[in-house]
Amino acid sequence: MPRRNLLATSAAVAGALGLPRAATAAPSGTAALHLAPAHRQVAALRSGRTSSRSLLDRLLEHHAGTNSGVNAVVTLDAEGARAAADRADRHLAATGRPLGPLHGLPMTVKDALETKGMRTTCGSPDLTDHVPGRDADAVALLRAAGAVIVGKTNVPVLCQDIQTSNPLFGTTRNPFAEDRTAGGSSGGAAAAVAAGLTSLEVGSDLGGSLRLPAAYCGVYALRTSRGASPIVPTRGHIPRPPGWLSSSDMVTLGPIARTARDLDLLLNVLAAPSPADGPAWSIRLPSPTRTRLGQYRIGIWADDGHCGVDSAVRGLLDQVTAALRAAGAAVDDSTRPVDMADSDILFQRLMYATASATATDSGFDADVRAADAMADDHPAALFLKSRTMRHRDWARADEDRQKLRGTWADYFTDHDVLVTPAAPTAAVLDQTSVPVPQRYITVDGEKRSYFAQTSWINLAGPVGLPSLVLPVGRTAEGLPLSIQLIGPYLSDRTLISVAKLLAPVLPPAPKAPALTP
């Protein structure tokens, strides 16, 4: 539909609702509001400078011209979103009060999160026709806050890859270069935010699935803290299969956005107890106690023999170190809080163990027989022996995890935040057509394991620490680079505050071409 007709339609809706015409006529300064950060969109919705329907219609117009180039949004419910936007506008007109902190804001969610009445496939052919009758708990929180769910973003099959492609919807392309991966498993989510198809997203993270795509697509992401329970409820996330009430003990959900301020906005909505715990529990994450970079004690872990980084990433960490020192922060650039190799192996053991919960009985029995007959030095031994470990072995691995948490806690008595690379390189070439055993990445000309992409961001995974990816600078080819901030348990808001303070003193990250109106 031509733009003039979209605006005319929105103006007619506004007239019928009794809203001021200025809310839908794209007044000066709002023409590109659909590409603005979420906090600006929310402010415009609350002030009446735009309506939810007008903002949605402009966003859908952007989808029509942009999504085919990145293939990030794979299910679009324009009709349902328009109905929800109209309801939000009617409510505001009738009461003068917003529905919640995301009142009328159009956004997408990862196709791993169940959405009532909207197809949720998790990229699996077995779930082609799965239309849930109930929202995932996190999606219910979004709707209660007033969000308008526009559609679902692409994932690899059952979220089991670190790039994003599946037989149902194909491959999601990086918004900066079509031959590069958008990462996975929240590749569609990160690409959608980077390309302006949504201002906010909810991703999930077990093995870097939230933060690696954010790093490759040049956007912000927060892996939220996780103790015995997550601070963002995970019921309704696939995998596990539809109908399961439990999830992996390392899975977290968290926000993806184009600014640190927007991470805060969405975290305020998502950080909540599960519905069963709601009558008695509340989640109140501590506020930052410092207001300037110069007040922070910051560790810098710029490189490691277990997962060396390329020259561009190392140069970026040097810039970050210099900027922090110039700001007066107490910088420790010799810090090594844990042994990366040992942490990585423990993470893999726990990840493989939890992933076996949904295996078929016959399939698991076959894995047990194969693992029992396999030598410890076999290339597949770590996977199979971890996947089939006895409960006694898991309990001991869990004890190792608790000891590792204690080591991190000791580290954070002398440091407030740890800065590391987010990945060894910028976005790598997409390898969808290459069998997994034959995939690899190249770091300064050296072939490395395909899964080395996640070694840095997996430092936080087994111990439940919050971890934030912050886009900073670019490669010579124009690809975004990123760093990772790790903080002590429940310091999620502190990490966001540090990201806000860091952004103005570091090289800006590039914007994807689709984000330029």
From TrEMBL:
It comes from the Bacteria. It holds the Pfam family Amidase. Residues 1-25 form the signal peptide. GO terms for cellular component: endomembrane system. Residues 57-495 form the Amidase domain. Gene3D superfamilies: Amidase signature (AS) domain. Keywords: Signal. InterPro entries: Amidase_dom, AS_sf, FAAH2, TAT_signal. This is Amidase. It comes from Streptomyces pacificus.
